[in-house]
Amino acid sequence: MIVRSVSRLAAPTRRAPRISRPVRADFRARLCTNASESGTFVQSARLGSEEAGESLFSRISAHLGPLVIWTAVSVQVGTFFSAGDEGVQILIHLDEFTSVVLDPSAEKAKLTERLERVSRGSALNNSLRLRLIDTPGLIERLASFTQGDPKTLGVTAQNHAAKILENVSALPEAQARLVADGWHSTLLEIIDSPRTTLYVKKTLTSAVCNIASHPDALVPLARASTLSVVHDEQESSTLLRRQKVALTLSRLGALIAALPQETLATLSTRERELAASYAEVEAEAAKQPLHQVRSTLIQSGVLLYLHTAAGGAAWGFFESIRLRDTRAQLVQNVVRTSLVTCFVPILLVGGVVTTYTHFNKTTDTVMEKFKLYFTSSMALYPAGRLLQWVERFAPLWLGGHIVGFVSFFAWTLYTESDLLKTDRELGETASKRAA
């Protein structure tokens, strides 16, 4: 037993079976292939993640980059225009301007320059208009300028003074103040004076029409013989005739004719006759459709919208006929082009411009103006995408707008609208008188 155990221990151990060289080479090749494939997979995964990151970054940059640039441009626009807004600057430094206007010994050139700037600024700011009417002696001074000698004061200074009075009268709060202080009678006296230039007559008549829109001004204007003075002003020269004045006369006459008999008894005979005559004109005109909104058709742009809509429909129809489109395509071109050419002016003219004008006249500080101009500029950023959508929806919209605008201006020319009348001839007449 012991001998066997020893012999077993002394016997050599068995070796593992040998692997042939071809098998080992094949194993090594497979191992390298697997490692290579694993590396390729890891590398491709890494590249995919990097490409995804770059794609996301490029998308963000494509959208954020233009917005950042446009924001920077809007900041510059807001800074530039807010710092140079004439209405705010005059409102801040009003004493520097009114002191020159109220100074009897002020130089002619300096006085004219101050009046010109106040004239421009008062058209842009409602608070400035109220400050002007609250300044003691300023309205009286401006009224005296309109009656002064053009050779001494200068025609330009006279015109600017009249324009300031017209701008002030456009504000409802100022209208009540002017009537309460009796300035409507002073304006009518200036209009009726033979020394007054045609431009001043036209401008102050427009101011009286503004005052006539206030409900509390009816009786005071009637007792001041407004119909007689303005009627004579319109008949004195064809250069002075305006549709706004004619419409105001007819409606004011109808309102005066409807006053109680005890009030009519206090008026002059001619004033009552003119009131009755204009009341008949108003009654006849009231039979026409849309007469109640006639005074606001051009002012609010409704007439423009109607013309652009009709122009879009006409352009869509004729282009479809020219291209020999199907009936369905023709109807689509007509409807879509008409809708776009109507609502784009409503959005831009009726909406954007009206809103901007309102806030521009009611902002009084540089910071408020900056916010207004910055916001207005930023609001234009989506306009590019809006125009792309409009182009896809109605490809013929641009031609429709052109046809509509041509139609609108042809109509205003035919009807001798106030929109196409200038004051150049009135200014030339005043300059000849001064010479």
Task: Provide a descriptive summary of the structure in words.
The structure is a single chain. The chain has 435 residues and is mainly alpha-helical. The chain has two domains: 86-288 and 425-434, Alpha Horseshoe (Leucine-rich Repeat Variant), CATH 1.25.10; 299-416, no CATH class. The protein is built from 24 helices and no strands. Helix 3 (86-92) packs across helix 5. The chain is globular and about 75 Å long. Residues 1-14 have low confidence and may be disordered.
Offer a quick outline of the entry.
With 435 residues, the chain is mainly alpha-helical. Helices cover 80% and strands 0% of the residues.
> What multimeric state do the chains show?
single chain
- What portion of residues is helical? over 70%
Q: Quick one: CATH class of the largest domain?
A: Mainly Alpha
Instruction: Name the shape in a single word.
Output: globular
